[in-house]
Write a structure and sequence with these properties.
This protein is mainly β. The protein has two helices and 25 strands.
Length: 421
Amino acid sequence: MAKKFRTDEIPAGKFTEDWGGNKNNTTPAAPDETNLLPYSGEAVQKFIKSYLQDHENNKIGHIPPMTKDPDGFYHIRAFANKNTYNEWLADPDENQALKLLDITIPISDEQGVMNIVELTTASNQTNYVSIDGSIVLKMRFTSQTYNPVTGKYANTYEDGTMTIQRRASASDSWRTIGTMAIKSVEAESDTYTDVDISGLLNSGTCQLRIIVTGDQTQSTTTYVVFQSVTKTELKLTFRNEWQQPITGATMSLLYTYTGAVAKTLNLKISGEGGVRSVQYAVGKVEYTETPNQFDVTDTEGDSVKVMSHGIHEIEAWLSVDGTDVESEHIVSQVMVVSDPDNKTPYIMLNQIVKSLVNWTSVQFFQWAIYNPGSDVLPVTFKLTDIQEVENYLSYTEQQDQNGVVYTFGNMIEIESKETNF
């Protein structure tokens, strides 16, 4: 049976469509229909209702009296009706979408002179992440007057009161968590003020918005909004029993880590042929007690073989996804035994201290031996100057054994003007 009407909807905005069917109409989606077929009554009704509803939602039905706002300007605002105006008035910041029109009148009641205050930031407003528990925002508050007669701006140098608000997500209400003073800077400068709000935020992720009111002019800036602010601790710990050699075809690496943010574990592993880089997306999950295991193997296509016989160095760190924020890099060593007939002894070094403070006791590093030819391997460590001429410290261990972790440390007493090395 031939169709009596087309089954698709009238395209939005297509007022030129002939609802009774026309060769110039939009081609139907169904292959067995033509543009000569009329639209169904349901499609016509839906088209008319949608545009009547859009007109009802966006028509201007109420314009409240024009008043001067805290920003120093007069505003003409329009709303659909008085009810939506009252709803907006109860929470202007949250109900911005209810305004159908907002025209700023560039006049003030002080002989034409206008107050202009502005708040900006140099911090990341999209995804601010702190991995050390500190939240320090770079903010810039400026306050000027503008004379429309002379066309000149002048800095007021007034102080301002900064109000900080937070909410857990976009579906929650804003809540003021603190206020603090901020000094204005010259509008021509590029100076930013460090604003430490660490004490106002708990660990976790939230949204922030900040506004400043001038202490003298009482003019307010617009809000500076931070869409995501995360306060956490990003820390990585190597948990292998590294004093035991790795045998077999897999290098199993164990790490515990913290940081309730989307993050990636980055590894650089030395091997035969160079250094192999490996990444693992670990998400927001934290491993604080039982370590997470990451297995690395060699394949025929790998140009760097990390399961080759000998000592392998592993550089590891966490990075926060979508940012340049990283944890401290930790360097570890493991022994891989892939040639049981190789009797060469090796020494593994871990937890190597990166800097020394003179006249203090310090642990230089931990160490262990791999000696397949004997149960012991006498080892001597020396601390010398860079030319290896002057010997500051010497230590010999005669009875060190396989599979045991030893510590090398001592008091640093170097006759030097330098205190840090």
